[in-house]
């Protein structure tokens, strides 16, 4: 067993991040059935927050698992609409196509401007033909309050002390 502290810290770091690579390790998946298809919206956060980037992945698959043919799509048209005070949805805060990824999931990273309710509309297309479309309602929490100077200074001091302790431990083992 390797008792090197650098090895141990690296191993802990790698295992802590292992499931989060494609936005599904610690996040949420919302599924809607549209005709013969399941339309999925995956996002990497347990809680969506304003002013924080979030990776959203879009997927479409057959409802019947016995269906052998792959679903082929060229792009996903995505529209994000913010709820208004009258109970409807307006204005559009994002609209555009996302090409199907050559490798990994098809998705985007987005920063919601404010806390509130948003509707994410997705339409899977193959060239000019619509395969399926669906919408998802998401609740976004308000942005966290920024830390004041005392809290930031204290956090920096604690980080500096932990770093100095780590250097001391590593250097002491070498002597």
Would you identify the regions where 5 or more consecutive residues have pLDDT less than 50?
A: 19-24
CATH topology descriptor of the largest domain: Immunoglobulin-like
CATH architectural grouping of the largest domain: Sandwich
Class based on secondary structure composition and strand pairing = alpha+beta
Helix content: 10-25%
List the helices and strands and how they pair.
Blueprint: H1 5-17, E1 28-34, E2 37-43, E3 53-62, E4 75-83, E5 89-99, E6 106-111, E7 116-126, E8 129-140, H2 149-174
Antiparallel strand pairs: 1-2, 2-3, 3-6, 4-5, 4-7, 7-8
Features:
2 domains; 175 residues; alpha+beta; Immunoglobulin-like; four-stranded antiparallel β-sheet; 2 helices
Please describe what this structure looks like.
The protein is of the alpha+beta class and 175 residues long. The protein folds into 2 domains: 121 residues, Sandwich (Immunoglobulin-like); 31 residues. 22% of the residues lie in helices and 42% in strands. The protein has a 4-stranded antiparallel sheet with strand order 1-2-3-6, with no helix packed on it. A 4-stranded antiparallel sheet has the order 5-4-7-8, with no helix packed on it. The longest helix has 26 residues.
